Amino acid sequence: MRSTRLIQVAIIFGMASASAMAADTFANGQSFYGQPAQQAAKARVVDVSTARHLNVAYGDTVTFRSEGKEFSWTFNGLDRRPVDLAKIAPAGFTGKSLNVYVAQNPLTRN
């Protein structure tokens, strides 16, 4: 009876750990995709309504605009993978799907 209870607790703990790891953040709470940025004069500006996809260099800061709203993001998280705009945009920003493709970090070789 006791071993059955231990197995149940282990399964529940494992499921909770797996769901926590499924979040799009590192253990330190930082996003896999980068971080919100202050709007900068150097930032690339993208109108989401006209873009179908977007290629960015690792470390680029981009200001996204849609229907009078805007936000800026620096892509300095994981490289060489697409980022769905919906995962980084503020709530209610846009309903349009847009993938941002982040190039390889020049400091990594693999």
TrEMBL record:
The record's keywords, sorted A to Z, are: Signal
InterPro entries hit by this protein: CzcE, CzcE_sf
**One Pfam family it belongs to:** CzcE
Signal peptide positions on this chain: 1-22
- Provide the protein name: CzcE family metal-binding protein
| Annotated source species | Comamonas denitrificans
Supply the source organism's classification: Bacteria, Pseudomonadati, Pseudomonadota, Betaproteobacteria, Burkholderiales
